[in-house]
Protein 1
Amino acid sequence: MNTRRAIDAKSTNDVANPNERQDKRNLMGIERFDPKDPDDRERMRVFLSPQQVDHQIRQAIQFCWMALPDEKRSVEEVEKQIRRIVDRALRDLRDDAASFAVGGE
């Protein structure tokens, strides 16, 4: 096994010695996609499922709550800040799509 494969094996929890195997619950969700594989686009879509998006949004909400100063920490303030950030991100997405002529615009 070459060094690169050994590193890859450990990072994907696919090691020769089962005693070295880490608990999969402690690993980040990392998936490798080969640009030459025609099925990878579908695999990526499945990997980035609606549940993954939901999880990321909930993490952002939790982080926003924790980042707010104590005197501003309320559901209303978190909602206000999350909406502000999402609105800005969507506006930037539209601007970028128009600037780079992508996304059907």
Protein 2
Amino acid sequence: MIHFFGFVFVSSAGFGFEFSSVVMFAAHQTLNTRHRISISKLLKMKKKKKNKKNKKNKKKKKNKKKKKNKKKKKQPNPPQHPPT
């Protein structure tokens, strides 16, 4: 059984586009699954995905920095002889 949805768009700057992409995804999902997925759930899923991606990128950056700092470490200074 396939459900088709009719949505009314209230487009505000920025949010309109984001919302429409989510709705398109919702329509696509309903064709694949037998149960309905609520818009709020989809928005949550999208946010989770974004957060996961950001976390991953942050970790990559941190590791890169660590590597760079490791390479940067100076050689220890040779012991200095006191003047005789």
Protein 3
Amino acid sequence: MVINGVALIADFGLSLLLNPVHAIARLGGYRAPEQSEIKRLSQKADVYSFGVLLLEVLTGKAPSVYPSPSRPRSAASVAVEEEEEAVVDLPKWVRSVVKEEWTAEVFDPELLRYKNIEEEMVAMLHIGLACVVPQPEKRPTMAEVVKMVEEIRVEQSPVGEDFDESRNSLSPSLATTEDFGHV
């Protein structure tokens, strides 16, 4: 949706059309930590949500993964299933992977099919991590985030000579007419 030339992200209403239990749980992954204590929204909470969205785009992972709704389980498998189905917090997961210096492992494999964009991806990852700092006063403002993003220069187009065709797995829903040579 665009209002006065400003793009707005409006997924929340659509997500509620899905399974309500999963939709509500998933929306919690975008909430800043301070929102559980204070019901008032703030610009710093919006920065946090943007950071989660950016991490989601870069990793290809949902902001939080919650256990499936109740299903029959045997007593012997409860402990294993609970461990497998534990809540995964995307910002914490990304921080832990980066801390272990496995930064390349964090990116969505679909993004890795483009050559020569690693520096830009790492820079965007750092912006996302700056946005999801747990302390709101340590997060940048959206104006600062915009400036950081604008400073990232992409010297070559990801589609064209730098595109690795052998790794092409575009689904028709993600491809553009340019991808198929149509005008």
